Amino acid sequence: MLTIGMGALLILIGYFLGLYFFDRAIAGLVIAILVWAVLSLIAYFQGDSILLSMSRAKKIGRDDHPRLYNVVEEMKIASGLEKMPNIYIIDDPALNAFATGRDPNRASVAITSGLLQKLNRDELQGVIGHEISHIKNRDVLLMAMCSVLLGTIVLLAWYGSRFLIFGGMTRSRRSSSSRGGGQGQLIILVVALVFMILAPIMAQLIYFAISRKREYLADASSALYTRYPEGLASALEKLGASTGQLKSANKATAPMYIINPFRKKGMKASDLSSTHPPISERIRILRAMAGASFNDYDQAYRQVHHGGKGVIPAASIAAETVPIATMRLEGEAAEPNEIQRARETSDVMWRLSNYNTITCDCGAKLRVPPNFKEPQIKCPHCGRTHQI
Amino acid sequence: MPVAGYVIIGVVVVLLIIFLAIYNGLVRRRNQVKNAWAQIDVQLKRRYDLIPNLVETVKGYMKHERETLEAVTKARNLAQQLTSAGAGERAKAEGELSSALSRLLAVVERYPDLKANQNFLALQEELTSTENKISFSRQFYNDSVLRYNNQTQMFPSNVVANMTGFKASEFFEVTLAAEREAPKVSFTK
Questions:
Q1: Is residue A215 flagged as an active site residue?
Q2: How far apart are CA A64 and CA A342, in angstroms?
């Protein structure tokens, strides 16, 4: 629905531009749709690789980080996804994660090393469940198309308004002398100008609204897959407490992250101009869930919002009851604690940069850089020599 | 006269299209159920493979838990024999194995040396994850069965299902008391 609204904005922009510059609405429409099509094709075929290389993400396999790999595989199974997504780690202390890929068979999930060491298994499961459901619900494609749509609208409106302001005088004089419709021309000019200014703002708001809706849906799906809303709730709590901004994020890619990478600390609740719903609200909804189904999420949402419309599309609400899992098999205490997780993650990051790690008998870890040519190395701590 | 003929042909064509659409939908759902069942199978097999490793690693540390270890091995062998049985019978054997395993992992608490063993920790992560994968694939299988069964029983798709021989599938449910009451496994304290 909202997507159609955005498309309509694009068409209107094209209409006005065409009407004004070519005296034919259709010409503007063709330009608008052409620009949109070209940008869409780029986003469709190159979007994920652009995003992943921009955020300097490193691909990992099963042996690099078995726990992360296993959690992703668990969520892949729970969601019924057919193909295992690629897994990437971003070397960044900020806490965030995102999913990308044009279709469910060509998807990737990425997580920052900071988040990976902060979360325990249940929380990691919740976050990965959220990302996998972005893939499963095809949000990646939807948001990519919407952001291209938004980009096109902003682009056209920007150039359109500049031309209207600076080229308008000569243009309208020529038109009026040839046609004698000065009054009509002026009205079109004013309407077009106002529209050019308003359209990007409206498109932006619609875009944010779509993005927030998909976030709620992904939260609900994550609760459904894991049968354990508390995992995601507690992960979001940790995410909300952090203030670090992700270095490599940018505006176009923001909706794919688990939390808004640009948020400021203590951002006001229910802010219209954000890609993500406020974290505190998402946590409250998850904690208010009586079961793990979409229906339960919808009810929890209405409870938090004191009635009103739900947020889950009616078609996906089934009246089945899905209990929350209370019995978790993994023992929390047997899990690596935060310090162990930090070591584990940094080991992975060093290895991914082709460093060789040698653990000395004295307990020191030697990181041997890839361009180190000597056949052996001395431990700087105890003086033992190691073969490489 | 030709008008009535066209109408009849039109109605038949429309009915045929509806029939085919429903039939294809049923096939898709049934394939999804089969696929989901295969997923459970993969994970259960993985568990059969992990258990001998686990028993081998743990044996040296656990001198006094012979019974627990034997129970796990026995449950595993029994479950493996029943791989070609139906969903209901199989679920029971697998439930038995799950509870034997959780009993074993519960006594690990008493062996701090074991908990420091790297090999055991890696195995434990694999086993934890496999248990999760089993329950997630069971979850997905049951969801798929529910959707498929609904379609074979609800009008109008039940008409097509009866004509072309689609039968309702069996749920993979763990009805064993021991499994439902299985204690939360924690490896310390």
A1: no
A2: 14
